Amino acid sequence: MVDLSHRSLWLASSKKVTELPRKGFFLKETLPENSFNIRPVYAPVQKSPVRFHGALPGQISTFASTLLASENGHYRLYATTLAAGKVSLGISVWESQDGLNWEPHFLNQVSLDGQKSNLIFFQGLTEKQLSVCQPQVVPLRDGRWRMYFWKHGDGQGRYLTAESADGLHWEVKGNPVLYHPGDTEVRALASGPPGETYFSRKRLLTNDATHVYYHPVLDRYECYSVWLHPAIPDRRVETDNAPGVHRLIHRRLSADGLEWSEPELLLMPDRNDPWDLQFYFLAVQGYQDFLIGSLGYYRVEEGQQTMDTELCFSFDQGRNWHRPVRGGFIPRSQPDSGWRDTMGIYASNVWIDAGEDWLCLYTGTPQPHNARTPVMEPSAARVRKGRLVGLAAGSTPGGFLTPPFFPTRSEITLDAAINGWLRAELCDGFGRKLPGYHLTDSAVIKGDSQCHRLSWKNNLVERYLYECVRLRFEFADGIIYSFDW
């Protein structure tokens, strides 16, 4: 098998199992043992504007578009593009060195307006070219590329594929791999008597906001998309742009990226969610030995119609997902802030690996989701890699007991922002205090650091190297993000 991992950001920060760092995060839905007075919280994010040179305001959407790492260390983006002066969509190609400033990659082919352009013209697509959007570009095992994209208009709603040798010039291949329920052929089949053709289409139904990845370690293609559940009366909202359905998240797997498995339901709202919540998308980013999901958190109720991007986490390759904090991790801005992401934040397909940080491109909008003419503004949120979700205590002290672990070096460090105080206790695998390592023996930790060093008077961690131990934390007015052993 050809090594394709360097051509995709799918596992940009993943490592081989033997190289995994020894680090404990707090990303699961249930709190650790012996928890009291703590709650999970998101880490702070820093917003930055994103510029597409030569594009008109509101012309570029990074939502459900594709970010790739190019061979020269720069980035390439395949973006959904609103044609100037028109209401139809196309797909354009952009290049960047930092993920914030993008230049058009002009294509040496026939453009739609006869001028130099970075819009892709698909060979073999005989219908209108300005009705394609949300490109998902994945590497193929033979070194070529495949793009998945939605073709709307002319009565069609279909997820097509195109292939390319250079990632720039594309030819449409084969039959649609997924269908939108609004497709004319699907609607005609649904109105008639059920038959084999109807059910073959029904198993492939989904909405747009679809994400496709090639997983280089498991050597398979994965599709995360929307499942449209028929609306039930007590959750139906007529102001939504699709009041007849509720959006859930499902997944399909494939060996070749063309023939997909049966749908597997992954995420649906539960009793801890608002009554009107729907899930609009799931984009996936690999990190170390788990997956980070960017989940579309969509409030459909009249007067809301807001879209946020929630963080969720999977520890079993995408089958089960933990949602430790419900709601968006990138705060929507206030109307007078100068930012236009006051009503919606829509994620790109993956995040950019920016060293110590993640750079999360997103498309913001000041309009409700059901607006007929959407206003789009690409932006970026920067967040520390180790600071995704933390456990917070207020002025009343809180604490918890970590899962067991085996120390592999002479010190244990802590990533935490402590305005008040923190003490730690080293315990055996059953949570019993170890002599000389009690809370009262602990040096008090204060301040904001990714590398606080735990210490206990004159006692060293070396004594318990490669033994099964646990930590008990007690702290006030602070957030613990992770510990490293």
Strand content: 35-45%
- SS element count, helices: 2
Mind telling me the C-alpha Rg?
Answer: 24 Å
Number of domains: 2
Count of beta strands:
29
Overall shape: it is elongated
Provide structural commentary.
The chain is built from 2 helices and 29 strands. The protein is mainly β and 485 residues long. The chain folds into 2 domains: 46-385, Glycosyl hydrolase domain, family 43 (Tachylectin-2, Chain A, 5 Propeller); 394-485, Hypothetical Protein Tm1070, Chain: A (Sandwich), CATH 2.60.290. The strands form 6 sheets. Strands 1, 2, 3, 25, 26, 27, 28 and 29 form an 8-stranded antiparallel beta sheet that branches. The radius of gyration is 24 Å and the shape is elongated. The chain starts with 22 loop residues before the first strand and ends with a strand.
In brief, what are we looking at here?
Helices cover 3% and strands 45% of the residues. By secondary structure, it is mainly β.
Task: Offer a few descriptive terms.
Tachylectin-2, Chain A, Hypothetical Protein Tm1070, Chain: A, 2 domains, 5-stranded antiparallel beta sheet, 45% strand, disordered N terminus
Question: How is the secondary structure organized here?
Answer:
Blueprint: E1 23-25, E2 33-36, E3 39-42, E4 46-49, E5 51-52, E6 60-69, E7 75-82, E8 89-96, E9 101-104, E10 132-139, E11 145-153, E12 156-164, E13 171-179, H1 184-191, H2 196-202, E14 211-215, E15 220-230, E16 245-254, E17 264-267, E18 277-287, E19 290-299, E20 306-314, E21 344-347, E22 352-354, E23 357-365, E24 377-384, E25 389-393, E26 398-401, E27 413-428, E28 445-453, E29 469-484
Parallel strand pairs: 5-9
Antiparallel strand pairs: 1-29, 2-26, 3-25, 4-24, 6-7, 7-8, 8-9, 10-11, 11-12, 12-13, 14-15, 15-16, 16-17, 18-19, 19-20, 21-23, 22-23, 23-24, 25-29, 26-29, 27-28, 27-29
